[in-house]
Design goal:
By secondary structure, this protein is of the alpha+beta class. It has nine helices and 28 strands.
């Protein structure tokens, strides 16, 4: 009896094991046949350069339409505006390889479950070959860090990261070109500044700026470049309610004029007008409609005097290495010529450190202010040759009371120099000496 019972139990166990194996094998086969819901899936693949139209639709808001008739995007609906090319480029980059976080359902028949029966946001994409796609965004997922998405005509339901939706879900202000001036900063050839401090005109030849009005003068390239940067970086403040734009326009009309700026590049001339009410600046240009608040840094950039833009440096060679120096101070004459890495005076090799000290003091000569007179008999005459002999600068320096006056050759400007800088120059000139004799190796 015991053996018979054991045999029956063994047979029952074997039968149960067989059923369990068959069930698990069938389940594994079914799972292998069904797409994994946790694997990222490519939703959309497109060539962003072929896209020529985008339409953004949101609940209870007018449709925004973007068109690309040529090389640049334009907003055509709900009304024409210049478009922010960078923002649209970022959107297209997101669309060109749109991937899901996971595939939720490969054959959904219940869009309402995901909030896709009435999408919160739709994006229509049109390409040059008349192909099109419509992306539907539904509810957020229960965790709140992703959103349901589907393509029109496609039964699959995906989730994408919330930041993916944010990169595409833009409002009109996000998509507008908010620049007051749309000129190409690298191609600007002329800037005209008319303000309370007087009228100034700048011209650029390649990378060099010059003051043209009120008369030709050397310009401080950094100061002019900073002005250009402030002008081209100026943006409309579109924050706040719609009434803010109307209030800004009204305030601009009765504000105190600060300056009018004209900027010219290869496309033409654009104008920017700045006014101030109390401590707030407002701007209006001929490129956009309306007036808007701007940062105080723009107002401060244009509200400057002529001398703020003048080059106070006496020499232009800057940090380029001179190839020749000739200094006259009283009866002392110092002719120096670079040969290779060394400096020479009539065939004598000179001490490199002493020559570099002289060059440094010449480079640092800078005006405390500009004056109209005071130049007398030169006490120092310095000629510096640089740029492979293409630039020769000659400067005369005379004593004037407790300070000095410098004058560049062929330049009527008088530069008042602090006495300390000229004293340092004279000291370094007196310190020029021959190089130490070379010693034999090992001795």
């Amino acid at each position: 009896m015991k053996i018979r019972g054991l045999l029956i139990a063994t047979l029952v166990f074997a039968a149960l094991a067989g059923v369990l194996y068959w069930s698990d094998h069938r389940k594994s086969s079914a799972q292998a046949a069904k797409p994994s819901t946790d694997t990222a899936t490519a939703i959309l693949k497109l060539d962003q350069n072929s896209v020529n139209k985008l339409e953004l639709r949101k609940k209870d808001q007018p449709t925004i339409q973007l068109d690309k008739p040529g090389s640049d995007w334009k907003i055509t609906e709900p009304k024409p505006f210049a478009a922010d090319q960078s923002t649209i480029s970022t959107m297209l980059s997101s669309l060109s390889s749109l991937n899901s976080e996971r595939l939720v359902d490969d054959k959904s028949t219940d869009l309402q479950r995901y909030g896709l029966d009435h999408p919160s946001f739709e994006l229509d994409i049109s390409e040059k070959d008349n192909r099109g796609q419509r992306i539907l965004f539904g509810d957020d997922t229960p965790t709140g860090n992703a959103v349901y998405l589907a393509l029109a005509g496609d039964p699959r339901i995906f989730t994408v990261a919330g930041y993916t939706k944010d990169s595409l879900d833009k409002n009109l202000n996000d998509l507008r070109d908010k620049r007051f001036l749309t000129v190409n900063a690298d191609k600007i050839s002329r800037v005209e500044l008319a303000g309370k401090q007087g009228d100034i005109e700048f011209g650029r030849n390649q990378d060099e700026w010059q003051i043209l009005k009120p008369k030709p003068m050397r310009a401080n390239a950094e100061a002019v470049s900073e002005l250009v940067r402030k002008l081209t970086d100026a943006r409309m403040d579109l924050s706040g309610p719609d009434t803010a734009a109307r209030e800004a326009a009204s305030t601009f009309n009765h504000g105190a004029p600060v300056a009018m700026v004209k900027v010219t590049d290869e496309s033409g001339t654009q104008e920017l007008h700045l006014r101030k009410d109390k401590n707030v600046y407002y701007a209006k240009s001929n490129v956009i409609d309306g007036a808007y608040k701007v940062g105080s840094d723009l107002g401060e950039a244009v509200n400057k005097k002529l001398d703020d833009f003048r080059n106070k440096k006496v020499f232009d060679f800057g940090y380029s290495d001179p190839s020749k120096l000739e200094i006259h101070s009283g009866s002392k004459v110092c002719p120096l010529l670079r040969g290779g890495q060394d400096w020479w005076d009539n065939g004598r090799k000179m001490d490199e450190a002493s020559v570099e000290s002289l060059i440094s003091n010449l480079r640092d000569l800078s005006a405390e202010k500009f004056v109209d007179s005071g130049f007398t008999t030169p006490a120092i005459e310095a000629t510096v040759t640089s740029k492979d002999g293409k630039r020769v600068e000659k400067v005369l320096i005379s004593k004037s009371g407790t300070s000095y006056i410098a004058k560049r050759e062929n330049d009527p400007t008088f530069y008042e120099l602090p006495a300390t800088s000229v004293d340092e120059l004279q000291k370094s000139l007196d310190g020029i000496k021959p190089a130490a004799p070379a010693t034999k190796s090992g001795k």
